[in-house]
Amino acid sequence: MTAELVRGQNHTLPQTRLEIRVSAGTPVVAGATLGDERGTVHGIEWIAHPGSPQLPGLEVSKQAAADHRLAVDLDAVPAAVHRVTVLLALPMEVGGPVRFGAVAAPFVAVTGLDGTEIATFTLTGLDAESAVAALELYRRQGDWKVRAVGQGYAGGLAAMLADQGVTGAAELARSIHEAVARGMARSVAPPPPRTPEGDRVRHTAAIGEPAPPVAPPAGPAPTRPTAATGPTTDSTAGGPTTGPSAGPATGPISYAHPRRQATAPPPPPPTAPPAEPGRPAQPVAGDATGWSMEERLYNQVWGMFEDLARTTAAYRSAVDFAESRMDQELDRALSDPRNRIGGAGDRARQEARAKRDQLTDRAREALDRDLAQLAAESAVVEPALPAAFAAWDNPVWHAYRVPMEIPMALRIGDLHLPENSDLHIPLLVRLPLERGIWIDSGRTASEAAALTDTDRLRRLAMDNAVAHAARLLAVYPAGEFSVHVIDAAGSATAALAPLVNSGVLAGPPAAGAGGVASVLARLTRRVDLVQMAIRAGAADSLPPDLDTAEQLLIVNDFPHGFDDRAVTQLRYLADEGPSVGVHLLMVADREDASAYGPVLDPLWRSLLRITPVADDHLADPWVGHAWTYEPLGIPAGSRVLEQVLAQVAAARRTGRRP
Q1: pLDDT of residue 66
Q2: Residues forming beta bridges with residue 140, ordered by sequence position
Q3: 556, 405, 242, 461: CA torsion to nearest 10
Q4: Rounded distance between C-alpha atoms, residue 192 and residue 198, angstroms
Q5: What is the DSSP pairing of strand 17-35 with strand 83-89?
Q6: From CA 495, how far away is CA 463, in angstroms rounded?
Q7: Cα 575–Cα 533–Cα 546 angle in degrees, nearest 5
Q8: Confidence of residue 205 (pLDDT cuts 50, 70, 90)
């Protein structure tokens, strides 16, 4: 029976191999410290955190996430350890929550390896605290117990570590947050929270007008089939987990997609007969909650992502348990001298391996059933996706027409796990874009990149940039999205041909240092003017020549052609641009910018890193799987890109707007 603990209450642990599961509803940093009888932590080697996730008998997550699974083997911790304290902290990211009182109460569960809950604790009553000691596992008269602590620290992670006697707590806390920032730069960002119901907000109308308030989340993220709030790269890939900000006219422009209902949307209409007893239900496209088919499909895709993450985590956990159990049984058998003579030792090994194989086979059967169901669902969902969610080979693009309003999200690639590389889940990012994108053209990005010729890799990266820009132009109404290009060295002429020849660019690609300075100055001016107009509530005072459409700046071969001033302006656009509709798409090799030193690290971390070839750098916010990202390819010989851009250009020339 599960013990539901309150602050200060303890409970005996019936076993020593445990999982500690954390569900916070928002990304948090999870760590643990090892303490002596007085709870004192004797050095950084006694602390498990994202930058150093493993200690004897203890393993924590490598990044901030909404859900965590911490592995604990109390028999393996050093004999001097008497307390294992589980710590939670809010990551120090720009725009994220800064106190636990602003988010749903974190929930912590101590479970066996089979998932059976032993004790749970909900951390209520937190307010200004940004770090909290959630619970502790401690020795008492030879037994281990768990105590619900819930001690919060307004001074954050540094104050909490200092309270446990850690020398250099502030420096250690800073290094932990830096490790988390690097991890969040490789995670898939979750969809933002819903906003109250209403029509989409045209950004031209939103300037200087009150924006609808964002409904606060009512609790932890729901699971399927309710509306998804689910998956955070270079920022989890992924990032960067909150939705567009909204507020009075004195705040940033609201580019919030739709004003959604905060209450649960109606369930989808039944479109398939109920399944026969004992047989799985037949998948149906749009079989998720939502106010429209687009929203139901969007939620269904994220639900598939979450299902695949969790079922794979269950399989991997079961395999790890089977291996660990076999090791323990072998240790016990071989520690007996009598088993070292004759065939007893061989029989013990065979029996232990047979049990391991039995558990592993059973776990694989369960995984295969889930994978088959997800594959069947994917086969139904993929053909039903709208153009913004669809791959380039989807027939929906052959029926493409310039839309009258922007969609919820845009597909920028596919994700898959090694357990089934054929099952691809679309990677969707919400629109309007909340962060820029960096297409990494470096050969060190992945094994596939290392095996690709440098020139070809850069051409592939630029081809991907052009395809992403074409998608963004295609899914926005006519005249509501503009694209600028900086190609200082002129090396991307061939790749840019579809954009240049169709006439959809705001101007010719900028070349040389002068062209770089001109484009950056123009976009920086736009950001400054719109921000000032918002703060002053004076939208009517904007210059008539100001383009209020959303802007995308493609930068190729950075930092070629950039001086210190241009680099500063680029960082400014990356930080301030998205809130007023100026977005960044960089094609660069990070090593090429190494001459600038760490000054550009915040820039790289603020961008969603994707690659022109397959790479497993993205992570989900639930269990931290390393997902393989696959860029969207245009079918060989297809002219779909040129046909779509031709329609976009024609709509721009005729001035057709919604």
Answers
A1: 84
A2: 143
A3: -20
A4: 17
A5: antiparallel
A6: 5
A7: 80
A8: very low
Tell me which H or E stretch contains 116. none
In 3-state terms the chain splits into helix, strand, coil percentages (rounded to 5) of 35, 20, 40
Please write the tens of the pLDDT for every residue from 506-519. Answer: 999 999 999 999 99
pLDDT tens for 244-287 read: 233 333 333 333 333 333 445 666 665 555 556 656 667 888 88
Q: Which residues pair with 582 in a beta bridge?
A: 551
Mean pLDDT of 150-158: 91
Integer-rounded Cα Rg, in Å, for the chain is 26
Q: How many residues does the chain have?
A: 658
Specify which residues 407 forms β-bridges with: none
Asked if pLDDT for residue 190 goes beyond 80, the answer is no
CB 438 within 8 A of CB 610: yes
Given pLDDT bands bounded at 50, 70 and 90, which one contains residue 577? very high
Torsion angle defined by CA atoms of residues 100, 103, 105 and 107, in that order, rounded to the nearest 10 degrees: -100
Sheet of strand 420-430, all strands in order from the earlier edge strand to the far edge: 420-430, 409-417, 626-630, 615-619
Contact 119, 90 (CB under 8 A): no
Task: Please state whether the predicted TM-score (pTM) of the whole model is above 0.85.
Answer: no
d(CA 526, CA 577): 9
Whether 214 has a pLDDT exceeding 50, the answer reads no
- Give the C-alpha distances (Å, rounded to integers) separating 46 from 40, 76, 544: 10, 14, 62
Distances (CA, A) of 393 to 293, 536, 595: 21, 47, 41
Residue with tokens 């991307």: 492
> Considering all CA atoms of the chain, what is the largest pairwise distance in Å, rounded to the nearest integer?
93
Tokens linked to 75: 């028999």
Question: Using an 8 Å Cβ cutoff, are 596 and 570 in contact?
Answer: no
Closest CA to 150 of 123, 189, 175: 123
- Inter-residue long-range contacts of 590-594, CB under 8 Å, 24+ positions, other chains counted: 590/440, 590/442, 591/442, 591/444, 592/442, 592/557, 592/558, 592/559, 592/560, 593/558, 593/559
- Is residue 488 helix, strand or coil? coil
Average confidence (pLDDT) over 599-603: 84
Q: Provide the pLDDT for residue 191.
A: 46
